[in-house]
Amino acid sequence: MGVLKDELLKAIWHAFTALDLDHSGKVSKSQLKVLSHNLCTVLKVPHDPVALEEHFRDDDEGPVSNQGYMPYLNKFILEKVQDNFDKIEFNRMCWTLCVKKNLTKSPLLITEEDSFKVWVIFNFLSEDKYPLIIVPEEIEYLLKKLTEAMGGGWQQEQFEHYKINFDDGKDGLSVWELIELIGNGQFSKGMDRQTVSMAINEVFNELILDVLKQGYMMKKGHKRKNWTERWFVLKPNIISYYVSEDLKDKKGDILLDENCCVESLPDKDGKKCLFLIKCFDKTFEISASDKKKKQEWIQAIHSTIYLLKLGSPPPHKEARQRRKELRKKLLAEQDELERQMKELQAANENKQQELETVRKKLEEAASRAAEEEKKRLQTQVELQARFSTELEREKLIRQQMEEQVAQKSSELEQYLQRVRELEDMYLKLQEALEDEKQARQDEETVRKLQARLLEEESSKRAELEKWHMEQQQAMQTTEAEKQELENQRVMKEQALQEAMEQLEQLELERRQALEQYEGVKKKLEMATNTTKSWKDKVAHHEGLIRLIEPGSKNPHLITNWGPAAFTQAELEEREKTWKGKKTTE
After folding, report:
1. Which of 33, 217, 236, 470 is least surrounded by CB atoms within 10 angstroms?
2. CB-CB contact of 70 with 94 (8 Å)
3. Which residues form the PH domain (predicted)?
4. CB-CB contact of 103 with 115 (8 Å)
5. What is the helix (H) or strand (E) element at residue 69, kind and residue range?
6. pLDDT for the residue numbered 548
């Protein structure tokens, strides 16, 4: 609940400072009433219109301070907030109060909607102290995410140059400076508005809406068992699926917990790249577009379930917390180093004071020695021996003091050398941190390149082995077919020779048969002509003369004059002729 309260306070702080027109840290009670009512509405908290009046009943006139409003805000609003409100609607309400006053009037590469999303991302990445700022490390993280989403390459040198020109008196950028930095296209050169807008939306979905992965896939129905394309959105504890990516028509949810699991399925029913999500009461069969998408979705869902088992936050929130802890650790180390340097400086000053004290003592001793010298000159001769002894003793003391001064000077030089070594260690530590960052980036790049080269080499080696086997099989098949074709060619040549001989024999026989046919044809024509002339004569003298012909095996027709000289068919033909003549008459 404390994390949610901190996130809400950041957006409310923007709205409050926008209402503070004269930058005095005070806002009128009427404006706070409107702000409180709007907050209760969007946060779904019961609104008590009397509470604000009761809270400020001793301050009926003039504005009230931010410090005076905070107890009311905590007691009557923030402590009653539950995690059941629309965070986007809440942020948009606070954004509406502050955008007109603070957003730059100069033309930007991004739209006002994109600026709103950058504003929400700023609240997520900013430090937990007021006034809100985003430190250079988080600016670099955000710009890298945007560049990656746009498909471009990160220009580290350009960002380092930007940090060099950064104002030394500032620890970071305000939200409006961040919007202007992204909107002026300094780190998105060569990209159009649509590409930048899509990149901002992708980063917004990941960091703010906790969208771990999204995309189109096919889902098998539970009742009709048909396959339908759906837009899936994976979040830390739920998978929602919609008709399309505009998220307007939601078709259902897959609730995830530590008991869920995801399994790969073999291809079936004409569907490929299948996997199964098992929940407490249902199972969901899903088909990805290709093997890569299938593996990405299985890995993403598996990681989400694993985080649920551990009770860990989403990866981007955990990474943000680690970055903050690292900055606190580095800041603590830097403070410790500064403290040590201050201690060394204080020790150095103490040594200087001690040396000054010793010098003063030496001067005082010299002064006393001169006075005593005068006194000794004025004393009697008998005291000269004692004076000499005292003088030797003073010389010895002076020598010891000088040795002490030399020793203190040596110690001071050692302390100064230690200070320089600590300063060198601090610079080397900074260089080592930069080298470690670069080494990690280079290692990740080389690892990806090696993985891609190994995958390409494996595929090419498999393809070459396949071609080699096919070539050997083709060579063996070609040799066998060549031998068989040679045998067939020899057999066909022999058969062709025999067929040519038979053709010549048949040609000869055909000619002989044709000659015989011509002779028989001539004889037949002669016989036909002779028979026709006889038939004409018989027809002319029908019934009077009967041509003597060889007897027929069929029964003969009998006329009044004896057996007929015609057949039954000729009789029928003659009857038809007679009937035709009668009809004509």
Report:
1. 470
2. no
3. 210-306
4. yes
5. helix 66-76
6. 47
Q: What local confidence, expressed as pLDDT, does residue 555 receive? A: 56
Token output for 477: 């098949």
* CA-to-CA dists, residue 177 to 93, 104, 454, angstroms: 21, 9, 45
pLDDT in tens, 51-64: 777 776 655 455 55
Query: What residue type is assigned to position 211 of the chain?
Result: V
The answer to whether the CB of 408 falls within 8 A of the CB of 351 is yes
Whole-angstrom distance, CA of residue 235 vs CA of residue 382: 107
Residue 382 confidence (pLDDT) above 60? yes
Are 33 and 52 in contact by the 8 Å Cβ rule? The answer is yes
Report how far residue 59's alpha carbon sits from residue 65's, in angstroms, rounded to the nearest whole number: 11
Instruction: Return the pLDDT at 127.
Output: 87
SS (H, E, C) 97-112: HHHHHHCCCCCCCCCH
**What is the reported pLDDT for 510?**
76
CB-based contact 447:390 (threshold 8 Å):
no
Q: What is the pLDDT of residue 117?
A: 92
| DSSP per residue, 353-393 | HHHHHHHHHHHHHHHHHHHHHHHHHHS-GGGHHHHHHHHHH
CA distance linking residue 573 with residue 578, whole number of Å: 9
What is this structure's pTM?
A: 0.56
Does the pLDDT value for residue 229 go beyond 90?
A: yes
* Spatial CA neighbour of 128 closest among 14, 8, 6: 6
In the chain, the domains with their CATH numbers are 1-102 (1.10.238), 213-313 (2.30.29.30)
546: three-class secondary structure by DSSP: coil
Strand 227-235: give its sheet, edge to edge: 250-255, 238-242, 227-235, 213-220, 283-287, 274-278, 261-265
Residues 6 or more apart in contact with residue 409 via CB below 8 angstroms: 355
**Residue 355 pLDDT exceeds 70:** yes
Name the token pair of 301.
């869902």
Query: For residues 288 and 272, what is the distance between their CA atoms, to the nearest angstrom?
Result: 7
Answer whether residue 531 shows pLDDT above 70.
Answer: no
Buried residues in 392-415 as b, exposed as e (16+ CB within 10 A): eebeeeeeeeeeeeeeeeeebeee
Q: What is the pLDDT of residues 283-310, one digit of tens each?
A: 999 999 999 999 999 999 999 999 888 8
